[in-house]
Write a structure and sequence with these properties.
Elements lengths: L1 H6 L14 H27 L7 E3 L10 E3 H53 L9 H51 L4 H69 L4 H59 L2 H10 L19
Helix pairs in contact: 3-5, 4-5, 4-6, 5-6, 5-7, 6-7
């Protein structure tokens, strides 16, 4: 185009202006249009910049087809979906594992309950054998009988405490009434005064006796409802272990009588393992029960020796009217009486 324009003559019109050829006008218009389009594209790129979400990755070489262009937005979305799906799969696997564990536990519990119930029914109707330790069973029966008797002693001692407390309160009120009447009745002042002093002395001795009996009741309550009860809880665990042991023993004996095929041998091996586990548990709890029974007997003798001596000395001194001996009994057993109103907080402790 430039070579052609350089060799052509430039005509001059009659106004003195240079004329333009039709081809030159069209070429100039095309160049201007192309320049304006390029300038607009450049301004748009400078202002807005490229959109990273709309950029593409060309999988082929230069001039490749549009089939090789992969939008980056699709890659980002697919990676997010993969991470979400993996996290959801992990949560589902965890919940599935917990559900399977609970199901196995319920299955084992149901099987164990079935075997123990079957063994219990067989023992009730005399069709099943049970493991018996005659010496231990006799000690357990003695303990249960002793606990029943000690509970009766505790009930009666509490009843005595309630009656004695009511009597002390009555004596206190009667002494106050005699004192008031001695002040208002001059002709019977001495008689009311003697009786008032006697009731106050009896009231004081009754409060001392109440302290001794309350200590006796507290010690018996600890022995019966804590020490003996703890031993009986261990005995209950021992009896449950004995029932489980006999149930799995009977199951193993039943399987041992059957045929010696592959399936039955696998069942026998499993039953043998369960039998050994429950046998160890039974023997361990039997040893624990034996130790606790021996310890309980020693502790019971020490506690009751001290408490019965306290009860005897306190009752004897009270009904003998020996105030000095009654107070000495409390000192001997380190019993401290609470003064009246000791439970009430002082004015410094009040909110």
């Amino acid at each position: 185009m430039l070579s052609k324009a350089a060799t052509m003559e430039i005509p001059i019109n009659r106004n003195g202006d240079t004329g333009t050829l039709p081809e030159d006008d069209s070429l100039e218009q095309v160049a201007k249009l192309q320049w304006s389009l390029d300038e607009k594209d450049l301004q748009q790129v400078m202002v807005s910049g490229p959109n990273l979400n709309e950029t593409s990755i060309v999988s082929g070489g230069y001039g490749g087809t549009a089939e090789g262009i992969i939008p980056t937005s699709s890659i980002k979305g697919s990676s997010m979906q993969d991470s979400r799906s993996s996290s959801s799969m992990t949560a589902e696997e965890a919940s599935r594992g917990v559900a399977v564990e609970k199901l196995d536990f319920m299955k084992q519990w149901g099987l164990n309950t079935y075997k123990c119930t079957k063994q219990m029914i067989a023992e009730r109707f005399g069709r099943g054998s049970r493991t018996v330790d005659l010496e231990l069973e006799a000690q357990i029966e003695v303990l249960r009988d002793t606990k029943r008797k000690y509970e009766n002693v505790l009930r009666l001692a509490r009843a005595l405490t309630n009656h004695l407390y009511s009597m002390v309160q009555t004596q206190h009120a009667l002494g106050d009434t005699f004192t008031d009447l001695s002040l208002k009745s001059p002709e019977l002042r001495d008689e009311f005064g003697y009786n008032a002093e006697t009731q106050k002395l009896l009231c004081k001795n009754g409060e001392t006796l109440l302290g001794a009996i309350n200590f006796f009741v507290s010690s018996i309550n600890t022995l019966v409802n804590k020490t003996m009860e703890d031993t009986l809880m261990t005995i209950k665990m021992y009896e449950a272990a004995r029932l489980e042991f006999d149930a799995y023993r009977a199951d193993l004996e039943e399987l041992s009588v059957g045929p010696r095929d592959v399936v039955n041998m696998a069942r026998i091996d499993t039953a043998q393992e369960q039998y050994q586990i429950h046998k160890d548990k039974y023997e361990r709890l039997r040893s624990d029960v034996t130790i606790k029974l021996n310890f309980l007997d020693e502790n019971k003798v020490k506690v009751m020796h001290k408490q019965l001596l306290l009860f005897h000395n306190a009752i004897s001194a009270y009904f003998a009217g020996n105030q000095q001996q009654l107070e000495q009994t409390l000192k001997q057993f380190n019993i401290k009486l609470r003064p009246p109103g000791a439970d009430k907080p002082s004015w410094l402790e009040e909110p």
